[in-house]
Amino acid sequence: MLPSMNWMRSYKMQEMTITSAQYSQYQGENTMVQATIDGREYSVPLDPANRHYAEILRQVDAGTLTIQAAD
Question: What is the reported pTM?
């Protein structure tokens, strides 16, 4: 028997503090975001199913974060 899914509805995702975000490129295409999240460095894939990328997009949409262009 599968566990109840009610816990998922009531689960509040922990707030992430993202202090920097910059695209990384491979052969001229953005492939990931190099981000500092809660004081740790992450290479975040451009996948909306990834919780870190989803939070980056949420903060960009909210106007509280800008993803810098790749160097």
Answer: 0.79
Q: Give me the long-range contacts of 11-15 (CB less than 8 A, separation at least 24).
A: 13/51, 13/55
Token output for 32: 């990931």
pLDDT band at 39 (very low <50, low <70, confident <90, very high): very high
Identify the sign of the CA torsion 5, 62, 14, 41.
positive
Angle at alpha carbon of residue 39, lines to 36 and 45, rounded to 5°:
30
Q: Are 54 and 69 in contact (CB under 8 A)?
A: no
- Per-residue pLDDT at 1 exceeds 80: no
Residue 58 phi/psi, 5° resolution? -60, -45
Residue 56 CB coordination number (10 Å): 22
Q: pLDDT, tens digit, for every residue of 6-36?
A: 544 444 557 899 999 999 999 999 999 999 9
